[in-house]
Design goal:
This protein has 280 residues and is an all-alpha fold. It has helices spanning 11-38, 41-62, 70-79, 82-96, 102-109, 112-127, 131-147, 150-161, 164-185, 195-204, 206-224, 230-241, 243-275. Helix 7 crosses helix 11 (206-224) and helix 8 (150-161) runs parallel beside helix 12 (230-241).
């Protein structure tokens, strides 16, 4: 965003200058909001909420050694508040995209191909809420990768262009670290753990996180982009390799990393309080 520092005696000039500046800021905000919608993020975040609610059930079973109950379900639902997730992601994306070429991003994702890609990604993400579909997608992608099919090569090129494995691994590890720190906040550990101890434990999980991430990313992408022709997928790769494509990729990671780190810490704290029998 643009900032201007002016002394008091320049106030009349400042008022005149701020008129076009305010208009530019409004235009930038409108463009980012339009991009947020063009990327299908309102729907995608709703799906992420559903994934989060299912993750809450896993926490109840694996960590809390209990079946879910109304109180825990309400706590998890409040943490994954849809409006707060959408508003937070929109604000973070707006900040991350400041000064970037949003026009080029909008041009691609409001095109026929861009709109089709977003529809396919959203549909695939929703379909993967079904565990059976998720497992089948991973297996199918594994077979294609093993056979080194032309489509798997294209998807690999897309993954590498957008650095999807490393960024998602980093995001997952950041979220895990935040969850541990949330447990710490809530007094789940008998002795206070240092950040270095938590980091060591999270780093030990990296190989398993990387494997799970790779399987999920390829399962999702192979499924989502199946209806696209090779030329259409190559066009998406070509856009992703441009400066605006790279800027958008980095901004999306920043925005959603912030969101999931916050959520994970809240989940850790709520889990600790639940284990302690406190009101949550």
């Amino acid at each position: 965003m643009l900032h201007a520092i002016r002394t008091a005696f320049l106030a009349p000039l400042a008022l005149i200058a701020l008129v076009p500046l305010a208009q530019a800021q409004t235009t930038d905000a409108e463009k980012t909001a339009a991009l947020f919608d063009a990327l299908g993020l309102p729907d995608m975040i709703a799906i992420m909420r559903e994934e989060g609610l299912a993750y809450g059930d896993e926490i109840a079973t694996d960590l809390l050694s209990t079946t879910t109950n109304a109180k825990w379900d309400e706590t998890v639902s409040d943490i994954y508040d849809l409006d707060r997730m959408r508003d937070g992601a929109a604000a973070a994306l707006d900040a991350a995209l400041a000064g970037n070429d949003v026009d080029a991003m909008l041009a691609f994702f409001t095109s026929d191909l861009g709109a089709e890609i977003i529809t396919l990604e959203t549909s695939a993400r929703r379909a993967l809420l079904d565990d059976a579909v998720d497992e089948a997608a991973k297996q199918s992608a594994g077979v294609a990768l093993e056979a080194d099919t032309p489509r798997s090569q294209l998807v690999t090129r897309f993954v590498e262009t957008n650095d999807l494995i490393d960024t998602n691994v980093v995001g997952a590890m950041n979220a895990n670290f935040a969850f541990y720190m949330g447990l710490q906040d809530g007094g789940a550990f008998d002795a206070e753990l240092t950040e270095d101890q938590v980091l060591t434990d999270v780093n030990d999980q990296e190989p398993q996180i990387r494997q799970n991430t790779t399987e999920w990313v390829y399962g999702f992408l192979m499924m989502a982009y199946q209806p696209l022709s090779d030329d259409e997928l190559q066009a998406y790769i070509d856009f992703s390799a441009t400066e605006p494509g790279q800027q958008l990729n980095a901004a999306m990671f920043d925005a959603f990393d912030q969101m999931f780190v916050t959520i994970s810490r809240q989940l850790g704290r709520a889990s600790a309080e639940y284990m302690a029998g406190q009101d949550i």
